[in-house]
Amino acid sequence: MARQPTRKKMYRTMQGRMVDIDKLRAANLDTPAVGNMGVNARGDVLGPKGVIAKPKEQVMKEYYQTPKGRAQDTPVPKSPRPAMQIPQPRVEQVQTMNPTVQETKPAPKRTVKTAPKQEQSKSGIDAALDGLE
Q: What distance in Å separates the CA atoms of residue 130 and residue 133, rounded to the nearest whole number?
């Protein structure tokens, strides 16, 4: 059976122009790709000043040589979680007459003083319903 020749991938743009994608790709193989991966459009790893540091073939060879998804015979032990630390009460240092001896005493507790509540005089409906039960 005769084999048909491969057709070029021609696409029509929104403006009606015909674009050959294969030709466009071939023209831009050495152009650095946009982003932070440091590769060109072909997939070569770029070094300083855009020089090819590692060709695409070497990158693919290294990728397929590394084993992925194999189960290990011995499980990896989990690292123990650190114990929660209970906060210690704050202690103030008090110096005595003898500078070599220092006494410690706990810090005073803070208390919030509230003003006593004053009775408000009732007015309106509250005053009228106060005596009824």
A: 8
b/e map of 69-78 (b: 16 or more CB within 10 Å)?
A: eeeeeeeeee
User: How many Cα atoms are found within 13 Å in the side-chain-facing hemisphere of 107?
Assistant: 8
The total number of structural domains in the chain stands at 1
Domain with 48 in it? 10-65
What is the overall mean pLDDT for the chain? 79
**Phi, psi values for residue 120, rounded to 5°:** -95, 140
pLDDT (tens digit per residue) in 27-38: 998 899 888 999
Q: Where are the beta strands (DSSP E) in the chain?
A: 10-12, 18-20, 45-46, 52-54, 91-95, 102-106
Model pLDDT, residue 58: 95
Distance from C-alpha of 13 to C-alpha of 5, rounded to nearest angstrom: 24
Q: How many CA atoms lie within 13 A of 116 on its CB side?
A: 2
